[in-house]
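Morning. Coffee machine broken again, so started the prediction first thing and wrote up yesterday's gels while waiting. Chain of 156 residues, entered below exactly as on the submission form.
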Amino acid sequence: MKRMMSWVMAATLICGTTTLMTGCKESNEQGNDELKEVRSTELIRTSQSWDGVELPDYLQGSPEIVAVKYEIPAGKKLGWHEHPVMNHGILVQGELTIIGQDGKEKVVHEGEPVVEMVNTVHHGENRGDKTVVLYMFYLSQKDIPLSVQHPEITIE
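Came back before lunch.
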């Protein structure tokens, strides 16, 4: 029960951080219109990654929450990699194309959430003309890498 509560608290923290970031972006986009009430917008609720695959069960043990800001210049590609832990994020600038090793693609647009694949090799590309800014939130544990690189696989 204690482990379940830890994961529930971790998920709540991550969702709250995502909502806070999104709320700040929405508030800034309003320009001169002053926000009068607290606003909360649920961006995504899912048990599947972007490719439709069910997410794995939670890890057992003490959780470690990790938040990472990625900045990917226009025209750059990330190498092939996989994530051993669940993660999701918000693309706050630009457009990112995620490609699975099977060729399936997902284009994530500015302001959209994304739930990454777990234990499935994929890579990302910035095919746009401005830097991608992506905030990702990982549900991990101490000493588990956020991603495992696969330099033996080449990107065409």
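The domain at 2-149 is CATH 2.60.120.10 (Jelly Rolls). Going to sketch it on the whiteboard this afternoon.
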